[in-house]
Design a protein that fits this description.
The complex is a heterodimer of chains A (320) and B (373).
Chain A lengths: L31 H33 L2 E2 L7 E2 L3 H9 L3 H30 L6 H13 L2 H12 L4 H8 L14 H26 L3 H9 L4 H29 L3 H7 L10 H11 L3 H29 L5
Antiparallel strand pairs in A: 1-2
Helix pairs in contact in A: 1-12, 3-7, 3-9, 4-7, 5-10, 7-9, 7-10, 9-12, 11-12
Chain B lengths: L5 H17 L12 H14 L5 E5 L3 H4 L7 H6 L9 H6 L1 E2 L2 E2 L2 E7 L1 E5 H6 L11 H10 L6 E3 L5 H10 L16 H15 L15 H7 L3 E6 L4 H7 L4 E4 L9 E11 L7 H10 L2 H9 L11 H5 L6 H10 L1 E4 L6 H16 L5 H13 L1
Parallel strand pairs in B: 6-7, 9-10
Antiparallel strand pairs in B: 1-9, 2-3, 4-9, 5-7, 5-8
Helix pairs in contact in B: 1-12, 1-13, 8-9, 16-17
The chains are: A mainly alpha (320), B alpha+beta (373).
């Protein structure tokens, strides 16, 4: 468990590479070739893994996306047909994109608001802050499948939520069976599961804000609310930027929640892009089509991330 | 072969040893996987050409995998093998594109399982052999109160097709392709969904692909009736705390008609000389082997003569119910190569219909559209 350290921790969107100025033991100082081979030796294990398990499959899936590739049967090169089918003939792909967008737009802000609010609250020297921090972080390191299963049991008809609501004579909707409520239920579960990680990142960010800033503001008569917006929030923006980018990317890739909680249903109301990809690849065994879905998602995430990095200049405040 | 428990795997080892004695000049090695993994493994092996010589297959999946299996008809003829000892509907269910793909070891029609204790407690008359849909509905209504339901419904093709067929609706067109938008089928599915959204004799459903949803409600004693097949009798006996029995599918406008599925052994299409492998699969489905599977409760034997030993361990009255069903109205469970996709879509879109949120016609139209996209 990551316990809050007393040292201020500085978070950056990208870690700066440390330059190793000291020569390696037993090597001649200044020999570029031996330096290069040392660097290569250190990079090799990771590089091989990246090549074997990331780059090659990635390229293979790009190739597959130009084929009609049933697992059993004839493979045929069809050019851009998979892509044009996705956007012109597929009756649900747009709906699937919208569902994913719905999830992202619902989940990311809620996650960030919760994470900032609770991090600020826990940082205000309340009693048992560390215990609360642990409790809020618990769902992050329990397996997602287990979490989703528990929520399934809670929300299912005649489940715990149903029981509690009917005890107070309140109407209990069929959360996971209703096309209007299934997605909100999924977002709720995901926020509960996911905000602890950002909370921890923000807590660390909060501790790195110099106290004299607050003291000076207090002397000038700034109220807590003003102090939050004028000091805490701007100083926290580098952490928030990191949190936003990472949460955006993972939420575009949401899979386990629809897989365990709703199986993409009812109807197509909680089918997300990755769940649709999984169904096409591993249920309908259309590997080419599934690969095309994957590359469309890749493009979307790339554009979304690029936009965020564009906004970074305007909204993120770096102290130095 | 698939096998989920040690007991199951051990039984198959026993059957393999039995078959080994019949074909001494062939070495039989048994390889098993869990039910879900089995199909993924088979798909991967089939695509890479690394299939075993002898493969087990379920009738519903025969069209999907047909190209990986040799048609057995030439071998049946050459070795003068007698197919008449097997039930004819399961042979038909294992046939695709004019060729028999496997010799069956078990089969079964979908029928009703009911909780005798709940019927007794609520003073409801137990199902008669020829009961009608009205009588079924009447019983279901009487058995529904509080958290208890008369029936556990779920939009899995296997569970609701018997009700559709009994009312004269079909799910395949003349070319053997899926057609769930024909008026008769839409109407039949609508009336099945009304069990939940109108008559409320079955509970609302969460969105799920878990086909065990209905069965779990029944085994927990929360629903009095459920649809399943004879293969579940052994599971029910070991897991439920109440007395249960079997009943026929209630009669609709066309009588009591249900679907028959089952499993068997086939031969890989890549095998050059299949005559020895054919000897082996006849041994795996021999009288002795099916007798053993029946007495262990694992399988309702596809060989009619061996069915008696299965009845010995079944609930009282099972023989009459199964005989009436098999001699009354059964059709082979015919499927298509894209059945797995259809199955997933049917469940996914069927649930909001059951819950009364989407009209059956709209949902089935979307299923049909996605199949042809």
């Amino acid at each position: 468990m990551a316990s809050p350290s007393s040292r201020p921790v500085k978070l950056r969107s990208a870690p700066t590479a440390e330059r190793n100025d000291r020569p390696a033991k037993g090597k001649k100082v200044g020999s570029d070739r031996s330096k290069a081979s040392t660097v290569l030796a250190f990079l090799l294990p990771n590089g091989l893994g990246f090549l074997g398990f990331m780059l090659l499959p990635l390229l293979a899936s790009l190739v597959l996306s130009f084929f009609s590739w049933p697992v059993l049967g004839q493979h045929k090169f069809i050019g851009l047909d998979n892509y044009s089918r996705l956007f012109t003939k597929d009756p649900v792909f747009f709906r699937v994109l919208l569902n994913t967008l719905y999830f992202v737009v619902g989940y990311v802000p809620l996650n960030l608001i919760f994470a900032v609010a609770i991090a600020v609250w826990l940082n205000s020297n309340i009693r048992g802050g560390r215990i609360f921090q642990l409790i809020f972080f618990l769902p992050v390191f329990t397996p997602m499948v287990a979490n989703a299963l528990i929520w399934r049991l809670l929300l299912t008809p005649h489940g715990v939520v149903d029981y509690v609501l009917s005890f107070f004579h309140l109407p209990s909707p069929n959360w996971l069976g209703s096309d209007r409520l299934a997605m909100p239920a999924m977002i709720l579960m995901s926020v509960w599961q996911g905000f602890g990680y950002n909370m921890l990142v923000f807590s660390a960010g909060l501790r790195s804000i110099p106290l004299p800033l607050y003291e000076a503001a207090a002397i000038d008569g700034a109220k807590p609310w003003t102090r939050f917006w004028k000091i805490t929030f701007p100083m926290l923006t580098p952490s928030i930027f990191f949190g936003t980018v990472m949460t955006f990317i993972t939420s575009f890739q949401v899979f386990v929640q629809p897989y365990v909680l709703t199986a993409g249903g009812p109807g197509v109301s909680t089918t997300t892009v990755v769940y649709y990809l999984y169904n096409n690849g591993f249920q309908y065994f259309k590997m080419g089509y599934a690969s095309a879905v994957g590359w469309v998602l890749f493009a979307i995430i790339m554009v979304a991330s690029a936009l965020q990095f564009g906004f970074q200049k305007r909204f993120v405040h770096y102290e130095n | 072969m698939w096998g989920n428990t040690d007991a199951e795997v051990n039984l198959w080892k026993e059957i393999a040893a039995l078959a080994q004695k019949q074909v001494p000049n062939l070495q039989i090695n048994l390889s098993t996987a869990g039910w879900n993994d089995y199909w993924t493994k088979l798909m991967m092996e089939a695509s890479s050409g690394g299939m075993q010589a002898i493969i087990s297959i379920q009738s519903q999946r025969t069209p999907q995998f047909a190209s990986a299996f040799q048609p057995l008809d030439p071998l049946v003829k050459a070795q003068n093998f007698d197919l008449k000892a097997f039930d004819s509907t399961i042979l038909a269910a294992l046939t695709f594109d004019g060729g028999l793909r496997a010799l069956p070891y078990d089969f079964g029609p979908y029928i009703i399982f009911y909780n005798k204790d709940l019927f007794k407690r609520d003073n409801v008359q137990e199902p008669k052999l020829d009961w009608t849909y009205d009588e079924f509905m009447d019983a279901a209504k009487k058995l529904t109160h509080g958290n208890q339901y008369g029936f556990a419904a779920f939009p899995y093709p296997d569970f609701c097709f018997p009700f559709a067929l009994s009312n004269g609706a079909t799910y395949l067109n003349g070319q053997g392709e899926i057609d769930v938008v024909n008026a008769a089928f839409v109407k039949a599915f609508e009336s099945y969904a009304e069990l939940v959204n109108k008559h409320r004799v079955a509970p609302q459903l969460p969105a799920t692909q878990d086909a065990n949803t209905a069965w779990s409600l029944w085994t927990a004693g929360n629903a009095a009736m459920v649809v399943s097949g004879p293969w579940d009798v052994v599971n029910a006996k070991s897991s439920v705390k109440f007395d249960f029995a079997l009943a026929t599918i209630p009669k609709g406008s066309k009588g009591s008609i249900t679907i028959v599925g089952g499993s068997g052994f086939g031969i890989s299409s890549s095998l050059k000389d299949p005559s020895l492998a054919f000897k082996a699969i006849t041994a795996l489905t021999s009288e002795e082997a099916e007798e053993r599977l029946a007495s262990a409760g694992r399988a309702f034997p596809a060989r009619q003569a061996q069915q008696a030993s299965w009845y010995k361990n079944a609930p009282v009255g099972s023989e009459e119910v199964l005989n009436r069903t098999l001699n009354g109205g059964v059709v082979p469970f015919k499927t298509t190569p894209n059945w797995q996709q259809f199955n997933l879509l049917f469940v996914q879109y069927g649930i909001p219909v059951m819950n009364g949120q989407t009209p059956a016609a709209t949902a089935l139209k979307e299923v049909q559209e996605q199949l042809s996209a």
